[in-house]
Amino acid sequence: MTAGREVRLLLHVGATEWGGAEVMVRNLLGALGDHVRPTLMGVDDGVLERVVEVRPGTEVLRVPRIGGSRDWAAVREHRRAMRGARPDVVQLNLPVPFSEPWTLLGASTLPGVRVIAVEHLPMPTPSAKLRAVRRVLDPRLAAEVAVGGPAARELERLRHRPAGSIRVVWNGVPVPVPGAVPPRPRGARVLVGGVGRLHEQKGFDVLVRALALLPPDVHVVLVGDGPEAAALRALAHDLGVADRLMLTGWVDRPSSWYAALDVLAMPSRFEGLPLVLLEALHAGVPVVATPVGSVSDAVRDGETGLLVPVGDAEALAAAVARLASEPDLGARVAADGRALATEWFTVAAMARSYEALYDEVLGRR
């Protein structure tokens, strides 16, 4: 973007919980150039505080959560706050495609403002009402962005949209900073990690089933917390591998575990472009993942990692065993994965791509 061409940007974060989509906004906010004057808007004080700490001095607008299609008072408050910020561009962060329809509606009625919707997960919209709302709203958007190529194509298929109508800006992450390495479990010759929220989406139950098919000196550590924690412990007990499964609970710096891992397993059932995957590539950890969402943008089977079918514990176990028994393969995919991440999946590259998009929608290119 041309130096000195100021962009007044309003970043909207509607989440009430901290997740990958919110981390992406935090990463972006911290990396945008000085010519971008951001305002951060959202509904949750805790989320807003964590995002804005990377860019002190950023104006923060706290608005009420919209309770549904009849909560017009909250919709008007969102629109009033956006209008008062006098943005050139409003960028809405959508953890799922059907979130924030009424905020999108308010933003789309602001005269002269370009609205960008960033879609983090390629999922179907669950209700006919919301699908109808999006059909009305989508033509009013200056741009729709997906976090990877396959995710964009899937969203186009779900929305019956022309190929190429949804843009791609890859997520970027900071290179993990080396720190104190957590101790490995006793007896673990091979340590496989799963990092993230313990939720059915992440497929960690498949990883526990795979653990039962692997030799006794293979252990699994799940770094994170979530609603599936008790069920995963119970499954490990039933399969006789409870002594080889470690659940850390909530960890402030999950990236500290990468240096302790021999393999990162990501057996997700659905994804966009997960930040944990990109962090592991930057950290040089061999990755086994499922080809969901835009994972295949980063994991090229046999080149930058290994891909296995969704829900297939036997294939996951075989891939882990292969990496454990072929150290040269593990070293090669780790090195190639790190090289790919360094080229494509950095915070700086992501920020420059968004800056170019702002330039484009404002007619400055």
Gist?
The protein has 365 residues and is of the alpha/beta class. It has helices at residues 20-31, 45-52, 72-85, 101-108, 128-137, 149-159, 204-211, 229-238, 275-283, 295-298, 313-325, 327-344, 347-361, and strands at residues 7-13, 36-42, 59-62, 89-94, 114-119, 143-146, 167-168, 190-195, 218-223, 245-247, 263-266, 287-289, 306-307.
* Broad shape: elongated
The CATH topology of the largest domain: Rossmann fold
Structural class: alpha/beta
Q: Rg to the nearest angstrom?
A: 21 Å
Helix percent band:
25-40%
Count, helices: 13
CATH class of the largest domain: Alpha Beta
Corresponding CATH superfamily of the largest domain: Glycogen Phosphorylase B
Q: How many β strands by DSSP?
A: 13
Q: Could you give a short account of the major beta sheet? A: 7 strands, parallel
Approximate strand percentage: 15-25%
Mean pLDDT: 94
N-to-C span: 8 Å
Query: Largest beta sheet: what is the strand line-up?
Result: 3-2-1-4-5-6-7
Proper CATH architecture of the largest domain? 3-Layer(aba) Sandwich
Protein name: Glycosyltransferase involved in cell wall biosynthesis
GO molecular function: glycosyltransferase activity
Pfam families: Glyco_trans_1_4, Glyco_transf_4
Organism: Nocardioides aurantiacus
